[in-house]
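Sample pair:
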Amino acid sequence: MIVEQIWTGNAYRNFNYLIACPQTGEALAIDPLDHQKCLNLARDKGWEITRVVNTHEHEDHIGGNREVVEATGARILAHAGASAAIPGMDRGLAAGDKVRFGGVELEVLDTPGHTMTHVCLLSRGEPPALFCGDTLFNAGAGNCHHGGHPEELYQTFADQLAEMPDDTRIYPGHDYLENNLRFTLDREPANRDARDLLDTAAVQDPNNAMVTTLGQEKSINTFFRLQNPEVIARLMDQYPDLGDSPDAKTVFLKLRELRNQW
C-alpha cells in the first residue's frame, strides 16, 4: 500500500489522500477536495482512481467529488447514513465493511462525533494506518459544531481509537498540529513531549507533514490524557463543581468545550 498525503494549501488547511496498490496501480482518493492536485498526482504516478471515500458529508471533504468522478468514473463511498447529503453516492458503508482495490484492504470504522455519519478507514498492515478525517487530528480532536455530538465523540475515542495499536500511523483531514499542541500546553504546561514537538511543528512544511503514531498522540494529545493530574487540576480551577475525581468522559467534554472557545 502506498500513501500520498496531499496538502491543499487552502484556508481550511485540508489534507487529501491517495492510497494506491503498487501491484495494480488502482487508487482510492479520500476526501479529494483539491481534485486537480489529486488527479495530477494520480496521472504522474500512473495510477487509476477507481474509488472515492468521503469520511463525512461536509463540503470541504466532498467538494471535489464531481470532478474526480467525471475524470475517472470512480465510485463514491461514504457512511450509509450520509446518502442524502452526498450527491452521487454509490455505496453506503457500515462498521466492519471492507474497501478493497488491488491488493489493498481497508476496514471501515463507524466513528460518530464530528458528525453522526462519519467513517474512518483502517489499514491493518505493518504498521497499521488510520485515515481519520475530522475525528482525530494530530494532537487534537474534531469539533462537533455542524451535525455532531461531543458525547459520541468521546465514545469513539474511548471505545475505538484508544484501543488501537500504538504504532498506528495517523492521517487526519486537516493540519492543525501547531495550534493543537498549543492547546495541549495550555492544559498541561509540563508536557515536555508536546513542548519539544511544538518547535518542529512551528516550522514544518505541510507538503511534507509529520505523521504521528497513536502512541505519540497519547503523549501529546490532551483528549487522550484524561487522567493526567495536571489536566484535571487545571480543569478544576475553571470548573470547581467537577469534584476531586471527575470521570474520563466529564474531562473530555470539558476539554472539548474549552477548545471550542480557545
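The mean pLDDT is 97.
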